[in-house]
Amino acid sequence: MPKPYQGHTPRKRFGQNFLIDEQIISQIATAVNPQKTDTVVEIGPGLGAITEELVAHCDNVSLVELDRDLAAKLQARFTPEQAQVYTEDALKFDFTRISKADHQMRIVGNLPYNISTPLLLRLFNFNRHIKDMFFMLQKELVDRITAPHNCKQFGRLSVISQYHCDTEYLFTVPPEAFNPPPKVQSAIIKLTPKPLSSLPPIEPEHFSLVVSKAFNQRRKTLRNSLKGILDDQQIANANVDPKLRAENLSVDDFVRLSKQYDPAQASNTDPASKD
Question: CA angle at residue 80 from 75 to 82, to 5 degrees?
């Protein structure tokens, strides 16, 4: 069992690893560079290490913390004027409750590794309300999100993330920066939502299906991995070579492929979910 830290025993079921390295905390604060009038939301603030930096520079900070014990500690540590605490699950939280018409949100978080992917995918639904996002994630996940095509790390999450956002790998965080130390390295990523007007239009379910099917059997050529939802002619109509593999395609290639998908003609519409 993990040892108590600042009066709280980290809970494995919540994936709690508390950031304790002051230099890393300072680096994150510098990267975020919160301004007085920003609307900042921190997901999983834990014991408030990063929160302390945020409230020192910003007047509009909201904290979303699922652990009731930690939420109580945060409410005791920060006044309502410094930070509004929501004791809720970020996977179900309606972030439009915090967004303001004249200010897009800036989101920060040391995300539990077990919810990172579903939370990111959910946050993309709120992109028009978000200016940028800074997350501590497992390094392997950051490598996948930021990977260019034509490399083995490039996968489903890469395509979907890069469709919605500009992605930037900021820096690596070693295990010893946490209490308790995780078994893997972490990294900080910056995600900047692209303006909706700049995104090529897609049918989200079709796009997700095509990307998922392509990467579910990533060693196969598109001719085989997309069998049942797109034929060779449809793939060629998207200006894509059916002999290529999923990792060889750009995000724009996947956008064009998804536009060729017709549910009425497809024989297999069972979406895969592997990255």
Answer: 100
Tokens 């299906």, located at residue: 209
Give dist(CA 275, CA 267) in Å, integer: 23
The architecture of the domain spanning 12-198 is: 3-Layer(aba) Sandwich (3.40)
- The domain spans of the chain are 12-198, 204-260
Q: Which residues of the chain have pLDDT under 50?
A: 1-5, 10-11, 13, 269-274
> Looking at residue 275, what is its pLDDT?
55
Q: How many whole angstroms separate alpha carbon 186 and alpha carbon 40? A: 22
Residue for token pair 């410094």 = 82
- For the domain with range 204-260, which CATH number is right: 3.30.70.260, 1.10.10.60, 1.10.8.100, 1.10.10.10? 1.10.8.100
| Residue 155 confidence (pLDDT) | 98
pLDDT in tens, 28-65: 999 999 999 999 999 999 999 999 999 999 999 999 99
Q: For 53-129, where are the E strands, in sequence order?
A: 60-64, 84-86, 105-110
Residue 86 in contact with residue 110, Cβ under 8 Å? Answer: no
User: Residue 129 corresponds to which amino acid?
Assistant: H
Tokens standing for 182? Answer: 């995780």
Q: Look up the pTM and report it.
A: 0.90
**What SS3 class is residue 6?**
coil
| Strand partners of residue 186 | 138, 173
